[in-house]
């Protein structure tokens, strides 16, 4: 079975509108944003499917014990439900699948990347009233419970295993070669989580040139975030040209050149040259 295919243009435009609206709302809904990422990837995910995924998260939360105790008790309860009873966890092969970055598919398959499994943990625990949040360790996303002085970390990729201090140190050192810093243990902002999900999708597509469709919708969603690097416009322009939309790509290249011309005139001129070359492909 191949990877999901994006929806038709009309549905894709509606998904982008809903995503932008939610991303710029006062309190962005992490689950909904991740499900809209899924809808941008998978033309079979409609509004009913998004509602069904939210209901599943609600139902999972309803299976947790009522306020089991402190942070460690919450972490243990989540591991028992999601990791043991429901079988949510990850494996090395999950890094090779686009579905591992799509929340609705993670709910269906019970498999995913660390960050998507962490979204499941956070959303289920939050609905049950737990003091829970994502923790964006470099290279490996985990979940935190409780205030800093009582913080308990759990690794959903490993079925929710509770992490000791040395465990977290090893995760960070393995990913970066650098020691764990206290600043790495703070709660991750929902929008930062979504950007990291989209960056994972872009990384998946980057080594699969035949899936430039995936790279394009991921970049377009990144551009809808309240703040984003200007260079994403250049990336989108390159993808448009790569996919044969030379005119739209040239327009985007010229727009990017205008953005950078004040700070980097040589780059701006080079990009304008690329825009001229793209328009020449129309002749």
Q: Can you count the helices?
A: 12
Order of helices and strands: HHHHHHEEEEHHHHHH
Strand content: 5-15%
Overall, the morphology is: globular
The largest sheet is: 4 strands, antiparallel
Biggest sheet, spatial arrangement of strands: 1-2-3-4
Structural class: mainly alpha
Low-pLDDT segments, ≥5 res: none
Number of strands: 4
Tell me the Rg in angstroms.
20 Å
Determine the fraction of residues in helical runs and give it as a percent range. 55-70%
Straight-line distance between termini:
39 Å
What do the pLDDT scores average to?
Answer: 94
Structural write-up:
The chain has 283 residues and is mainly alpha-helical. It has twelve helices and four strands, in the order ααααααββββαααααα. The chain has helices at 9-23, 30-41, 47-62, 71-85, 103-109, 114-127, 165-176, 190-206, 212-223, 231-242, 246-260, 265-280, and strands at 132-135, 142-145, 152-155, 161-163. A four-stranded antiparallel β-sheet has the order 1-2-3-4. A hairpin with a 6-residue loop joins β1 (132-135) and β2. The protein is globular and about 70 Å long. The two termini are 39 Å apart.
Topology:
Elements: H1 9-23, H2 30-41, H3 47-62, H4 71-85, H5 103-109, H6 114-127, E1 132-135, E2 142-145, E3 152-155, E4 161-163, H7 165-176, H8 190-206, H9 212-223, H10 231-242, H11 246-260, H12 265-280
Family: Belongs to the UPF0162 family.
Domain Protein SirB1 N-terminal: 55-199
InterPro entries: SirB1_N
């Amino acid at each position: 079975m191949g990877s999901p295919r994006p929806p038709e243009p009309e549905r894709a435009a509606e998904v982008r509108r809903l995503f932008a609206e939610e991303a710029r709302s006062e309190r962005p809904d992490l689950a909904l944003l991740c499900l809209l990422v899924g809808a941008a990837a998978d033309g079979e995910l409609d509004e009913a499917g998004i509602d069904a995924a939210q209901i599943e998260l609600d139902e999972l939360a309803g299976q947790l014990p009522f306020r089991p105790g402190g942070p460690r008790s919450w972490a243990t309860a989540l591991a028992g439900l999601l990791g043991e009873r429901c079988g949510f966890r990850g494996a090395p092969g999950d890094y090779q699948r686009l579905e591992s970055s799509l929340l609705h598919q993670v709910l269906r398959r019970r498999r995913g990347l660390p960050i998507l499994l962490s979204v499941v943990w956070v959303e289920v625990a939050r609905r049950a009233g737990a003091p829970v949040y994502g923790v964006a360790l470099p290279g490996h996303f985990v979940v935190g419970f409780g205030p800093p002085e009582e913080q308990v970390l759990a690794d959903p990729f490993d079925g929710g295993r509770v992490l000791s201090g040395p465990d977290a140190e090893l995760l960070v050192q393995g990913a970066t070669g650098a020691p764990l810093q206290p600043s790495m243990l703070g709660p991750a902002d929902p929008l930062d989580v979504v950007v990291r999900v989209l960056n994972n999708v872009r990384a998946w597509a980057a080594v699969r040139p035949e899936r430039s469709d995936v790279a394009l919708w991921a970049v377009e969603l990144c551009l809808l975030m309240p703040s984003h690097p200007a260079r994403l416009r250049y990336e989108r322009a390159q993808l448009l040209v790569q996919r044969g939309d030379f005119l739209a790509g040239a327009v985007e290249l010229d727009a990017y050149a205008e953005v950078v011309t004040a700070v980097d005139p040589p780059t701006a001129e080079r990009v304008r040259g690329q825009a001229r070359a793209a328009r020449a492909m129309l002749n």
